[in-house]
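Re: that backbone. Tokens:
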């Protein structure tokens, strides 16, 4: 399917690997020029060079901490006007409710709520001015079904979801869509980190921890960055203009609900 977005310009954060890279890959395959951001310069440069070489699109790599005001300023200055924004950030560490203090919540909210909001506020006016734009925020399945040990993530991402719910309907008349993608367990570094916690807690092997988690998913496997990226690219396409303010689960059926 031709997504109709060749020649558009996208900003993708946390894009050097994992789900962010999956989204960047799918957009590049659709002919979208990219501005990629991540904190690690080496992995980011390697990703940018690889995508530019294989897909023949323009790729700009900006290594910066997007959760800081200075980092955002650098990235946004380099990006200029964009047609597509994909926000992504690593989740806060797991723990118990009694582990977290105010500063832990502030860091989580800064990274997983206030940073995406700041990026949207910076890029939406340009999209509105052109009468076309796409925003996809990568959040978490925990927005639909809270994960006990991920209370920091549950709280911050739920706040972002509420903001998007209202904002998406305010910008929709201008041809701009905002939607959220809610990943379940995918084969990424984040999943490895969570599985390592199970390894330590239960004194089992990593393969056993993965098999144990996969058994809880109706699809009986982890998702892939490639299929996640394909969904993201569709939401950014010309075909998705009537999808507004939605929270779309990619979790292999893990969330059990009729509606």
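Recovered sequence:
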């Amino acid at each position: 399917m031709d997504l109709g977005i060749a020649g558009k310009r996208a900003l993708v954060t946390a894009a050097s690997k994992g789900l962010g890279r999956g989204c960047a890959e799918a957009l590049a395959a659709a002919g979208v020029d990219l501005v990629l951001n991540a904190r690690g310069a080496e992995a980011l440069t390697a990703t940018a060079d690889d995508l530019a070489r294989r897909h023949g699109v323009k790729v700009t790599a900006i290594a910066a901490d997007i959760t800081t005001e200075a980092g955002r300023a650098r990235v946004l200055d380099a990006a200029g006007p964009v047609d597509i924004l994909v926000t992504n950030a690593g989740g806060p560490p797991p723990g118990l409710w009694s582990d977290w203090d105010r500063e832990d919540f502030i860091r989580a909210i800064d990274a997983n709520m206030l940073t995406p909001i700041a990026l949207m506020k910076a890029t939406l006016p340009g999209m509105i001015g052109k009468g076309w734009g796409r925003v996809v925020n990568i959040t978490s399945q925990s927005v639909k079904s809270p994960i006990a040990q991920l209370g920091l993530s549950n709280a911050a991402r739920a706040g972002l979801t509420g903001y998007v719910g209202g904002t998406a309907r305010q910008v929709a008349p201008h041809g701009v869509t905002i939607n959220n993608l809610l990943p379940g367990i995918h084969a990424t570094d984040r999943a490895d980190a969570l599985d390592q916690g199970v390894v330590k807690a239960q004194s089992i092997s990593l393969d056993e921890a993965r098999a144990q988690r996969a058994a809880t998913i109706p699809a009986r496997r982890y998702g892939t960055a490639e299929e996640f990226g394909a969904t993201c690219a569709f939401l950014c396409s010309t075909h998705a203009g009537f999808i507004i303010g939605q929270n779309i689960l990619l979790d292999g059926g893990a969330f059990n609900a009729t509606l």
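Residues 85 and 120 are 8 Å apart (CA to CA). The chain is about 45% helix and 15% strand.
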